[in-house]
Design a protein that fits this description.
CATH superfamily: Vaccinia Virus protein VP39
Strand content: 15-25%
Structural class: alpha/beta
CATH architecture: 3-Layer(aba) Sandwich
CATH class: Alpha Beta
Radius of gyration: 17 Å
CATH topology: Rossmann fold
Number of strands: 7
Order of helices and strands: HHHHEHEHEEHEHHHEE
Number of helices: 10
Number of domains: 1
Helix content: 40-55%
């Protein structure tokens, strides 16, 4: 972790409180800033994430860290039945989602064992205070044979694209976020990639949480990443 990242990222014991307050503050303009930051590409990434669940119409899914409901709306358009959960009351209050909503920490979900057919999570893994516990909760609430689809930020491997990405994501995004919403929050979001495990580490964590068939894909030349997995049968 760089000195600049340390200056922006909260200490472990403060992370849940700081992240909740930050997302409460940026909720009103969250969707607008997302569209600007990604040039609208986030919509296609979300559609792919939902399709990658491979679940039949009518399947009940959890949209974890649902924010203002982008993934829930996409899921509904593809025939799925979402429940939204988010740590931030501000995000839930600004939601345009299509299903019931619940305020919850990802590491302690108020859902029964095996109660959903699938789970989607968009750009939130790095915001969880206890990622391992959150992945285990995913494994608990998704039924055996159910599916998860996790979207996260990534960095291109091509050196030219990576240079442009760094200028945009680390310099332009905080500036744009400050103009349209909250500068401190949009300094945190690029820096928060330091919280992300490597793909091998995440695969190991998912295996420990009860998943198999783990697939990791880079999207749009590595600007985003998609991880899918299937809940193993119990016993």
């Amino acid at each position: 972790m760089t000195p600049d990242e340390r200056s922006v990222l909260p200490a472990h014991e403060d992370k849940t409180r700081v992240v909740r307050a930050m997302f409460d503050d940026i909720a009103p303009r969250y969707e607008l800033v997302n569209r600007v930051m990604t040039f609208g590409l986030d919509a296609s990434w979300r559609r792919r994430a939902v399709r990658s669940l491979g679940l039949p119409a009518g399947s009940r899914i959890l949209d974890l860290a649902c924010g203002t409901g982008d993934l829930s709306r996409t899921a509904t358009a593809q025939g799925l039945v979402p429940i939204g959960a988010d740590l931030s009351f501000g995000m839930l209050g600004a939601s345009h989602g299509t299903g019931p909503l619940v305020q919850a920490d990802a590491s302690a979900l108020p859902l029964g064992d095996g109660s959903v057919d699938g789970l989607i999570c968009g750009y939130a893994l790095r915001n969880f205070t206890d990622l391992a516990a959150s992945l285990h909760e995913m494994g608990r609430v998704v039924r055996p044979g159910g599916r998860i689809s996790l979207l996260e930020v990534a960095a291109p491997t091509n050196s030219v694209l990576l240079a442009g990405y760094k200028i945009w994501f680390e310099r332009a995004v905080p500036l744009i976020g400050g103009l349209l919403s909250d500068r401190a929050a949009y300094r945190y979001l690029p820096a928060s990639t330091a919280y992300l495990p490597t793909s091998d580490q995440l695969r190991s964590m998912l295996l420990d949480a009860g998943f198999s068939g783990i697939n990791h894909r880079q999207l749009t030349a590595g600007l985003s990443q998609l991880v899918t997995a299937t809940r193993r049968p119990q016993g």
